[in-house]
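Thread amino acids onto this structure.
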């Protein structure tokens, strides 16, 4: 074996290790964007539910209370979520989906609540922000999933690189 062969192998190994760390930092950045989008959504839902819905007799007050508690729980779960394991992320996604369904049920109440929406510009603005937030979550989730798949593919040569 030539004397330069071990050096060449060492350089390949170090390059792969550096690439793994770069991929990990990109993955962490995408993870933080996803967490921020989920927290932003829970804040918008909480602000939206604080609007004066007591004037509308068709909106169920208990549903509003449940949705407020779900929004607070979503914020707390996302805030305390430190690991990127599959089960904790799927739990947050399930809570996010059930919150979106409940908020949709609340705001798609019978036709008499339409007068409330026409009079309340701030609530309409928050609803459009909530829709934009849902789009932002979908994009961040797609980017995160794509980066996870790329991260798994890059680790095939030397085995999985476990971040610290």
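Threaded sequence (164 positions):
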């Amino acid at each position: 074996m030539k004397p330069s062969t071990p050096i060449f192998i060492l350089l390949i190994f170090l390059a792969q290790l550096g690439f793994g760390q770069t991929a990990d930092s990109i993955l962490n950045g995408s993870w933080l964007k996803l967490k921020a989008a989920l927290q932003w959504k829970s804040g918008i839902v909480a602000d939206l539910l604080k609007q004066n819905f007591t004037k509308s007799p068709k909106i169920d007050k208990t549903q509003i209370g449940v949705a407020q508690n779900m929004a607070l729980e979503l914020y707390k779960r996302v805030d305390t979520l430190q690991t990127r394991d599959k089960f904790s992320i799927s739990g947050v996604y399930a809570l996010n989906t059930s919150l979106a369904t409940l908020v949709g049920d609340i705001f798609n109440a019978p036709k008499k609540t339409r007068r409330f929406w026409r009079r309340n510009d701030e609530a309409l603005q928050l609803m459009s922000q909530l829709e934009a937030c849902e789009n932002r979550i979908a994009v961040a989730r797609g980017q995160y999933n794509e980066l996870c798949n790329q991260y798994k593919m890059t680790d095939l040569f030397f085995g999985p690189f476990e971040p610290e």
